[in-house]
Amino acid sequence: MIPRLPNDEHSTAFTLVELLVVIGIIAALMLLLAPAFTTISQAGNLTSAAATIKGVIEQARSTAMASNTYTWVGFYEEDESKASTTPPTPGNGRLVLSVVASNDGTNVYGSASSGSIDPTKLRQVGKLTKIESVHLPLFAVGDGTDDTFGTRPTLEDDGAPAGYNYGRFGELNGTSPNTAPYTTPFNFQYPVGNPAPAVQYTFNKLLQFSPVGEARVNGNTYNIRHVVEIGLIQTHGNVVPTPTGGVGTSAATYAGNVVALQITGFGGNVKIYTR
Predict the structure, then answer these.
(1) What pTM does this model have?
(2) How far apart are CA 273 and CA 138, in angstroms?
(3) d(CA 85, CA 88)
């Protein structure tokens, strides 16, 4: 008879199967505890923040075309010095993006010319995206003579009082005429679904994509623009740098690093201009 080693009866080693079970449980818990939004912290690199926004926009457009439906990108800026609350605190420094798609392939406005898009007729596309320490300003427009920040394609001017503000996003919590888009006839909530969930955010600054990929600011109320612009500048918490010119207007200039994203209305192509 082979003698038993003294510690055999007290062995506590895990088998391979037991280890795999534990790993599987941990992985499942991580999925359950994952947040329902994506946060980009400390957007010190504005180009990285711009690339994130570009990715959100391209996801919205590709979903519209692949699903033969309408999609909307909602823009909201809240106070970065405060934790996200319900309802949120409008302010500066934290950009919030949400993408939704029409379930039935229509623009789901019905006969209404304005108002909330029925949340039961929408589905969420991807997670809520939050980018810290950025602000959407209203830059002085490019002169359209070249391919740099200052000479980037110019925007369409609708004349007073709207000016360029039917073709860009900026100063989202500003007052007319220094907010863009200038008017906001439609809005959608976050989250969406059926039955309609409790509202956490209301997005009324919208970029719409049609089933063929055309981009419109807010919705079908407005004509397609040859280009739509989103400006970015870095903040310190909720403190926005003071413009070097155009203070409090729709044509501000800033020192230092700035970024402008432009989306072509018909092709939906996104290009990033930096300085």
Answers:
(1) 0.83
(2) 15
(3) 5
Q: Roughly how many angstroms between the first and final C-alpha of the chain, as a whole number?
A: 83
pLDDT at residue 26, as a whole number: 65
Distance from C-alpha of 272 to C-alpha of 152, rounded to nearest angstrom: 10
Q: Specify the pLDDT at position 33.
A: 45
CA dist list (Å): 117 to 120, 158, 206, 210? 9, 26, 11, 15
Task: Name residues whose C-beta falls within 8 Å of residue 238's C-beta, 6 or more positions apart in sequence.
Answer: 79, 80, 81, 91, 92, 93
What is the pairing mode between strands 128-135 and 37-40?
parallel
Residue 144: both structure tokens together: 């359209």
Cα torsion 233, 237, 242, 246: sign: positive
- For the chain, give the percent of residues with pLDDT over 70: 84
Look-up of token digits 């003698």: 3
For the chain, give the DSSP string.
Answer: -PPPPTTGGG--PPPHHHHHHHHHHHHHHHHHHS-SEEEE----SHHHHHHHHHHHHHHHHHHHHHTTS-EEEEEEEEETTS---SS--B-SEEEEEEEEEESSSS---TT-SSEE--GGGEEE-S-EEEEEEEE---BPPP-SSSSSTTTSPPPPP--TTTTTTTSEEB-TT--TTSSBSS---EEEEES--SSPPPPSEEE-EEEEE-TT--EEESSTTSPPPSEEEEEEEE-BTTBPPPPSBSTTSSSBB-SS--EEEEEETTT--EEEEE-
